[in-house]
Specification:
7 helices, two-stranded antiparallel sheet, single chain, 12% strand, Tetracycline Repressor, domain 2, 3-stranded parallel sheet, alpha/beta, 154 residues
Length: 154
Amino acid sequence: MSPAITQFSGQYRWLSNFYPCFVRYHDVVYPTTEHAYQATKTLDDDLRLRISRLPRPGLAKTFYRDHDLISAIRPGWHDLSLSVMEQILRLKFIDTRRFRDLLLATGDVTIQEGNYWGDTFWGVDLRTASGLNHLGKIIMRLRKELQEECHGIG
């Protein structure tokens, strides 16, 4: 195993929010965690349902912009975004056995959402080697929680 997971591709594609994984969040089933996260940006139940039915996660990611619905994003979203992402990733990595086992198998390696599209909030821009890597940090925090649970710590 490599000393770090630096991208959510290849054998680590399953770490991506775009990877197929049905999650139920606020009584709606989403085909990926990306769909769930994007849908949660709005309080409009009809928009959430529309997002849940989109055929690809990339369409969910650009939904508000593509449909000129930026005004539908809930007030204070930025302040909620990290906790919402953690709740959704918890459904994937804690509550779904397959992804739980895969995550535990990563041991203690650093997990970084490296990208070439300039996302320095959720990941690290590999062109500049800069970024906050919030997605990787949340996943590593969930992994540590699982490891402690498995070893009876906490």
